[in-house]
Amino acid sequence: MECLQTWPEPIVRVQSLAESGINKVPDRYIKPLSQRPTTITTSTCKTSNYLKNNNNCEFSEVNIPVIDLQNLSSDEEMLCNMSDACREWGFFQVVNHGVSHELMKKARETWTEFFNLPLESKQEYANSPKTYEGYGSRLGVEKGVVLDWSDYFFLHFMPPSLRNYSKWPKLPPSCRKVIAEYGEEVVKLGWKLLKLISINLGLKEDHLQKSFGGEENVGACLRVNFYPKCPQPDLTLGLSSHSDPGGMTILLPDEHVPGLQVRRGDDWVTVKPVPNAFIVNIGDQLQVLSNAVYKSVEHRVIVNSVKDRVSLAFFYNPKSDLLIEPAKELVTEDRPALYPPMTFDEYRLYIRTKGPCGKAQVESLTSPR
Ligand code: OGA
Ligand code: NI
Question: Which residues form the Fe2OG dioxygenase domain (predicted)?
């Protein structure tokens, strides 16, 4: 793919823009009216309230289902709650997940430190659309599009053969070690979750793990998002509406700064993170594998004028060259396969070219061909 070699325009770091003291958001970041966070649709209208002190429209925060992994698969009620959450929300939070709280805190602090380094130290890792690895400020390569108010750092963690340590930040000094430890733990959690989701779908407990390529081959990438505070948060988005293209996402949200919004029908609800929990969501590949029994759900990130926000999204994906298709057990005469087989490598080209586009990609697969 020729078009994926370089960015179409010079890259501007949103953090530098924010720190330059501008009091207006440049046109490049101003979303059309229909996408702005202040666009009130039906019931959000009643729940939103306007914060006059920081000129920011704040939405009330909502609790999304919390799943306690303490007793794991022996616990019918837990499995049931997880199944309901997957069907009704596409999102849930997990507690007693096995990842050390200390390590979660360290990971957050280390990455905050990274983004607070001088620009030159970060530019060393400037990324290109070829692999997306490194320090980036846009998703998609189409010229002239409206950009999101965020920077990020993206790296491959699994399979180990894709780990490119030279692209992991060497500063702050603890960074590489923390990524390795954190990645290891979160991969273990992802593995457990895949098993539970398989059981809930009525598949063999290792069905999804196998479809993802087995323990050695499963793909896992880390995307650390940095959402700088924004002088006009009601005109832009930190991350535009999208569904995650991969299998499943395990998000460590900012403890102190809300921002993640999940679509519920015509509304957007702001997620209220439970302390020390991860937020898990179903990605497009699980929608395909489950033949749409579970669906990926659109989400986006709003920004605010008071605080920067940092989140760590760990994407758990099928091995990139395996064909992903609906599980045979979930395909019947009444419910034929909704999606053609496709590798994740092919699939993710769409978002890497076009940038975040709601659920346009996965929905296009089922439209008449
Ligand atoms: C993502 C994402 C949400 C957040 O990186 O795909 O949806 O809260 N992030 O940063
Ligand atoms: Ni996402």
Answer: 217-318
